[in-house]
């Protein structure tokens, strides 16, 4: 007979995973107040009541070249977490994304008979589809967040739990989409009014290293092309990013904001957004924007050879069409970025088409209540774990 887990170990590797882990921790505690939750996480999970045994910031790197330098520390932390799962009576391991690091932990957990409820499926449909067979042996149940992932992974032998996208807890039916759109349209249609332009540079160190100089010059170019309009620039400091570091770059910005995006986006008229979860959030909120991404030359070379999707932005991937322009690598240059962002002001038909796409995107992303549903599934989970250990990958 299945017994609900008494000790859940959650592992995340970046700011978005920390937020997801915090929401899951709160949902689990609301259903099972006495449950023990330990984690590799960050400040959000700590606030939610998880026992943080390892900070995710110590393993949060991006790209092959970055991983090489951090490898000794990553291996040490990995061994520490494997020992934790073995020695602390953990009954359920919950990795949140971060497949390179968490994949090893998942394999070790399964080999030790510990069920693994993996949240946020790796993007094998975009690149690395050949890894799916090996990944299957590291997962007992797979929580998917994108609408097309359920069919993709179920057809490849996974026990799939379709969560819906976590952002729908913020941008579901009660989000003031139409009200915010009306305010934004008044600003954009009036060519003499002041604009508020949001800058969302991401949270990973490599993203910031390559994008901040580009975004700074883009802001300067925007000021030069706005003619009779004034612009206020608001730079979003993602969790884990020191606002002082952003202030040192964006001397033109009037505001460095640590506000959650749900609170910040209703004030924004236009935006420049680094590819990632924030780009989907901006699209769900209905803010016209340009998507930008730039990485090191080696990581770009490798990514171009592995990428199987024609798009990099999540909103474009989900809609299977380019509802937002993408500026990648050499195309992520200040003048083209400034020019294309200002196109939103002069082309109301493009804005209206984007708003229609944003409404359709919201419908595709599922219903609110994601973490409550997921917590219920975990507490009622009956995973027999009958797969042959020989099939559990290496």
Characterization of the model:
This protein is of the alpha/beta class and 394 residues long. The protein folds into 2 domains: 7-164 and 367-391, 3-Layer(aba) Sandwich (Rossmann fold); 172-364, Rossmann fold (3-Layer(aba) Sandwich), CATH 3.40.50. It is 47% helix and 15% strand. The protein has 17 helices and 13 strands. It has helices at residues 15-31, 43-48, 64-87, 99-111, 132-136, 149-154, 168-171, 177-189, 205-225, 243-249, 261-264, 277-284, 297-306, 314-319, 334-346, 348-364, 370-379, and strands at residues 7-11, 36-41, 51-55, 92-95, 117-119, 141-144, 160-162, 195-200, 231-236, 255-257, 270-274, 289-293, 326-328. Strands 10-9-8-11-12-13 form a 6-stranded parallel β-sheet, sandwiched between helices. Strands 3-2-1-4 form a 4-stranded parallel β-sheet. A 3-stranded parallel β-sheet has the order 5-6-7. Helix 1 (15-31) links the parallel strand 1 and strand 2 (36-41). Helix 3 runs parallel beside helix 4 (99-111) and helix 9 crosses helix 15 (334-346). The longest helix is centred in the first third of the chain and has 24 residues, at 64-87. Residues 300-306 and 383-394 have low confidence and may be disordered.
């Amino acid at each position: 007979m299945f017994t609900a887990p008494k000790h859940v170990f959650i592992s995340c590797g970046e700011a978005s995973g920390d937020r997801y882990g915090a929401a899951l921790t709160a949902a689990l505690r609301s259903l099972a107040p006495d449950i023990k939750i330990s984690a590799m996480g960050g400040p959000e999970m700590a606030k939610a009541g998880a026992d943080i045994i390892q900070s995710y910031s110590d393993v949060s790197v991006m790209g092959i070249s970055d991983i090489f330098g951090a490898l000794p520390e990553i291996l040490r932390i990995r061994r520490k977490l494997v020992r934790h799962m073995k020695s602390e009576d953990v009954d359920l391991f919950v990795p949140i994304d971060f497949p390179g690091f968490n994949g090893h932990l998942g394999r070790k957990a399964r080999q030790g008979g510990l069920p693994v409820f993996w949240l946020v499926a790796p993007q094998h449909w975009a690149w690395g589809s050949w890894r799916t067979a090996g990944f299957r042996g590291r997962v007992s149940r797979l929580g998917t967040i994108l609408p097309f992932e359920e069919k993709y992974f179920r057809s490849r032998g996974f026990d799939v739990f379709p969560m819906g996208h976590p952002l729908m807890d913020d941008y579901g039916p009660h989000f003031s989409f139409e009200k915010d759109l009306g305010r934004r349209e008044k600003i954009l249609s009036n060519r003499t009014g002041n604009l508020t332009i949001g800058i969302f540079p991401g949270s990973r160190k490599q993203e910031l290293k390559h994008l901040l100089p580009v975004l700074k010059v883009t802001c300067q170019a925007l000021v030069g092309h706005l003619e009779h309009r004034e612009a206020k620039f608001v730079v979003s400091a993602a969790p884990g990013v020191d606002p002082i570091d952003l202030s040192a770059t964006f001397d033109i910005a009037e505001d460095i904001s640590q506000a959650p995006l749900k609170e910040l986006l209703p004030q924004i008229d236009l935006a420049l957004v680094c590819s990632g979860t924030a780009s989907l959030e901006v699209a769900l909120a209905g803010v016209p924007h340009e998507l930008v991404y730039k990485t090191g030359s080696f990581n770009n070379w490798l990514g171009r050879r592995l990428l199987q999707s024609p798009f990099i932005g999540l909103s474009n991937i989900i809609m299977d069409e380019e509802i937002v322009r993408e500026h990648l690598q050499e195309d992520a240059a200040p003048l083209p970025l400034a020019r294309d962002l200002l196109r939103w002001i002069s082309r109301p038909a493009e804005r209206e088409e984007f708003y229609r796409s944003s409404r359709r995107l919201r419908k595709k992303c599922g219903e609110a209540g994601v973490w409550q549903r997921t917590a219920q599934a975990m507490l009622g989970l009956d995973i027999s774990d009958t797969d042959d250990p020989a099939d559990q990958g290496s």
